[in-house]
Structures are given as C-alpha cells and as structure tokens.
Write a structure and sequence with these properties.
The protein is of the alpha/beta class. The protein has two domains: 166 residues; 286 residues, Aminopeptidase. It is 41% helix and 20% strand. Helix 3 links the parallel strand 5 and strand 6.
Length: 549
C-alpha cells in the first residue's frame, strides 16, 4: 500500500506545484526580516542652516539623498551617509566627510545638561566650523531616541573593517552577516524664503523742550546650525526681555510730569541680529535718518544695545572709547562695567556687535553684554538653553542697568542715593514674574530668521513682543523689504524633513544570496529531474526482494 502512495507522490513531481513550493517559499523565508516592524523607521529631522549673505553662500546646499548608512569608522565613499552622535565627530572628520561622503546625519545629545564642559565646548566649536563653510552634501540633525541609539550601535558593530578582522574569512563573514541601513530623505529642492524682517519701536517723550534721545535696542532672533532648534536663551532672549522690562520700568517714571526724565527714550527690537549683519537695524536707520521727518532720532545722546546678559559680569563694548564727561562715559561709570574697545572693520563679512550699525551712522553707541568677545561661540549654538541660574543673572543685570540708566537720566550722585532710595527701591524694582514669563516664552520658541521673518508682523514671537511693548509705549512695527535685484541676504527652506531608515543587508550579501539561490535552484532542478528514475530503481530493488520472500 505504501508503494502505491509513493507512486502518487512521484507522480506529483511531474506537475508544477513542487516548483513553486520548493523555490518560492525558501526564498521568501531567507529574504524576509525576522521582525518586519523593526525593518523600517520614520523620524523627523532638521536640515542644517542655509543662507546667503551678500551673495556669499553659507551652510548646507542640498536636501535629498538615498544612501547606505555607515558609522564614523566604516564609511569610505560618496555612496555612504555617515551617522554619528554630534559629540563624537571631530572637526577634521567633518571636513573629510564634507568633501568625500554623500550625506551626514548627526544625532543630538539625549540631555545636554549631562554633557561635560569639554563636550559642550567641542559642540560649539563644531557648529562654528560648520557654518564657516559652504557644504554641498545634505546635512541633517535628529533628536535622540532609543531607536536612533540602536541604529548607531548597529552601525558601529556591524561593519568590521579588514584591519580589525583577524583573517580574510572573518572579514568576509562579518560583512555578509552584518545588518545595514538604507537612509532616505525625500525633500524639495532648497528654495528662497520670502523674508520680511521686522523692527518694533516705541518712544517715551522727555520733558518739554528737551531734545536729546537715548535709544535702548536689542535683536530678538537667535542663531545656530539648526534653524528649527535655535532657542537662543542668552543670545538674545535675554536682551529682548531686558528691553521689555526697561520699557515697563521707565514708562512708570515718565507717566508723571514730576518724575519724567529730560531725554526721550526710544525702545527698539529687531528681528535680524548678528547672523544677518543686523539688516533690520540698517533699514530702520535708513528710514528714520534719511527721511524728511527725522524727529524720532534727533540729537542722539547714546544708543545702548543689550546682547547676551544672562551671566556676569557685564562688559561695555565700544567702537570708539568714550570721552571723559560724555554720556557714554557716565553710563560706564554708573554701571561699573569694564570697557572693551574694538574698531569697526568694514572689510569683515560680519559686524561684531549691534552698536556698530549705529556707530557707522556716526552715533555714540555701545553694547552691554556678559560676553567678553564677539567671537564667543555661545552666540551661535543650539546649546543656548534656559536655566534657573541664567534667570537670576538676567534679573540682577536688568536691575543694575535700570539703576545706571536712571542715575544718568536724573543726574544722581552717590550722595543722592540715600535720599532717593524710594526711587530706586520702588520705581526701579524689576518684576521678576514678568521677566521669568518672557524669558521662558522666548527661550522656548525657535527664533531663527527663517522662522520669525517669514511670519506676519503681527504673528508669532514678533506679534507677542509688539503687544508687550504696546502696554507701555505707543509702538510702531516696520517691515523691511529686501532689494529684489541685489538682496542683502537670502534664506532657504526646507528647514525640516522626514527621514526613513530601512534595515537592509549589505550589497555583498545580495551577491552571496544570489549565488546561494542559484545553487539551491540547481539542486532542486536536478532533484526533480532525477527523482522518478531514482524511485524506479528503488522500487525494483524493493519489489524484487519482496518477490523473493
């Protein structure tokens, strides 16, 4: 009976079903991933900064790529996308990747507060080096996730180079058995953003007949290598908060005729800072100085710019040392700040400080800052995040600045301080709740020029600051247009994209798999062709022995 069943089984091999079963099923089993869900990932990523300043390109110029992912130690060609933690890559490695690799993906720290001071300084210097170069390959940044951490570890351990393998056979085995990743970003071609920088200003009029004017200015944008993650708690949320708080303090003093100061006070906030050469301030000055009615900026006593004041001590930066007895010298003495003198170099691509825009127009101007140098990398970093200690410093520095400014306006001396203690303690008292609110709000919003100059003047951060100043001043919002023929700068999108990571085997695995499939099909073919003959011979032997018995 079992021989009859075997005859039927042999007859099946002459049909088509075994060809499908023996060929298709094993191939599917070999090629299918053990965990289909883990075979692909989707992440939101941020493209590196891209802008032109006076037609000079800066930052990343590409957006899309479809490349094989490799680690810092295993990449070797332009078909590779290098994946690494931002704190692990050196400046030299970045320069090499920029010129030879196909793309770069950097994963940000899980918690920047856990970074050492050396790691933070390294990241800041790396950002500075990246922004000084025109980069042709796509560069993206991703926030830390457990999935990204696993991908980085896989890439670090999967691709073992020949020099790290004991034998050539071991190197081949490591290459075939390793898991790879195909990394894909499909983003539109970079295009210019319709940018409309904005300047907000308001004025407190001094006593009748007094013509002198004091300008208190700050920029409220921020800058880093990642536009979508530029929060700029120190540079320059701190300066913008100070302008709003000083406007509140002096609006109370100027609201009564008995305590109104002699000079008029102009409070100004601009949406373009040092990364775009204070373009908004330049346009604002042109509008108010070159106009027929230039009453707003008549007889400027001095311009005080506030930039990065969330640490101590404060420093006064000037383009020209103030003369003895001048208002600027009076402010220096009353503030007790050391002086840093730096001449304006018009040949430089960037202006050093905000006050230089005013100094170029022959105004007495200076910048109050906690930073000792305009080259400090803290001005352009994604690590510029808020902290409780920074808030305390901001509140103290605003109070010190308000006292110094009031002392100058009302011409108070040390002998007058005790007599006018009520003025200092009550009228000049800072509102810490308000400072905390605005510091927290501004430092939680990305404020890169790409974000804030592409929104409506009455929307977003700009609208919020305008409404804040309008509580104390009669404000005016000025939107500035770029020169269409020769624009001073150009900003580009996209600033973010969706990144897809697919778990794949390396290319050499496809070759080995192809050879294995060919060998398998050959074996199956000959097994199918020879099975009937084998079965007939086997049946004869079995039948013959049965007959003998």
């Amino acid at each position: 009976m079992w021989l009859d069943q075997a005859d039927g089984f042999a007859e099946i091999f002459r049909g088509y079903l075994p060809y499908y079963l023996l060929v298709v099923f094993p191939i599917f089993i070999i090629m299918s991933p053990a965990n289909p869900v883990a075979a692909s990932h989707e992440f939101s990523v941020y493209r590196m900064q891209q802008y032109d300043l006076h037609t000079v390109p800066h930052g990343c110029r590409s957006a899309s790529f479809n490349l094989e992912g490799r680690s810092l130690s295993s990449w070797s060609m332009s078909r590779h996308c290098v994946v690494a933690r931002i704190q692990d890559i050196t400046i030299d490695q970045f320069v090499e990747i920029r010129s030879k690799a196909g793309a770069l993906l950097l994963v940000l720290p899980k918690n920047d507060t856990l970074l050492t001071d050396e790691q933070k300084e390294h990241i800041k210097l790396l950002e500075m080096a990246m922004m000084q170069q025109d980069i042709g390959i796509p560069v993206y940044f991703a926030e830390w996730t457990p999935e990204f951490e696993d991908i980085i570890k896989d890439l670090q351990h999967s691709f073992i180079t020949d020099d790290k393998s004991g034998t050539a056979l071991e190197a081949m085995f490591n290459t075939v058995s390793s898991n790879g990743y195909q990394i894909v970003v499909s983003a539109p071609t970079p295009a210019k953003i319709d940018s409309k920088p904005v300047t907000i200003h308001g004025k407190l009029v001094g006593r009748s007949g007094a013509a002198q004017t004091i300008v208190i200015a700050a920029h409220y944008d921020s800058s880093s290598v990642i536009p979508e993650l530029s929060f700029g708690a120190d540079s320059n949320a701190s300066g913008a908060v100070a302008v709003v708080e000083l406007a509140r303090i002096f609006s109370r003093l100027y609201s009564a005729a008995a305590t109104r100061g002699g000079p008029s006070l102009v409070f100004m906030l601009t949406s373009t800072g040092h990364s775009l050469n204070y373009f908004g301030t330049k346009k604002w000055l042109e509008e108010h100085l070159d106009a027929v009615d230039a009453s707003l900026l008549q007889d400027i006593s001095f311009v005080m710019c506030l930039d990065s004041i969330s640490s101590s001590p404060l420093t006064m930066h000037v383009s020209k040392p103030p003369k003895a007895g001048s208002p600027a010298q009076s402010m220096k003495a009353r503030l007790g700040a050391p002086l840093v003198h730096k001449k304006i170099n018009l040949a430089d691509e960037f202006l050093a400080w905000h006050h230089e825009r005013f100094s170029i127009r022959r105004m007495t101007a200076f910048t109050i800052s906690s930073l000792q140098s305009h080259k400090d990398p803290s001005r352009n970093t994604l690590l510029d995040t808020p902290s409780e200690s920074s808030f305390r410093n901001i509140a103290d520095n605003i109070a010190a600045t308000a006292r110094a400014l009031a002392s100058h306006i009302y011409n108070l001396t040390e002998e007058d301080n005790e007599e006018d203690s009520i003025l200092y303690d009550e009228a000049l008292g800072v509102d810490e709740a308000s400072i905390r609110h605005w510091y927290k709000f501004l430092s939680s919003q990305p404020r890169s020029p790409q974000v804030i100059t592409s929104t409506a003047p009455n929307g977003g951060v700009t609208g919020a600051l305008e409404r804040a100043l309008s509580k104390y001043l009669e404000t005016t919002v000025s939107a500035h247009a770029l020169d269409k023929r020769e624009p001073e700068y150009a900003l580009y999108s996209p600033t973010r994209a969706i990144l897809y990571v697919y778990s794949v085997k390396p290319a050499v695995f496809d070759l080995i798999l192809t050879l294995a499939i060919v060998a398998y099909l050959t074996l199956v073919y000959f097994a199918i062709q020879l099975f009937p003959r084998f079965y007939e011979e086997y049946a004869k032997v079995v039948t013959g022995k049965a007959k003998v018995n």
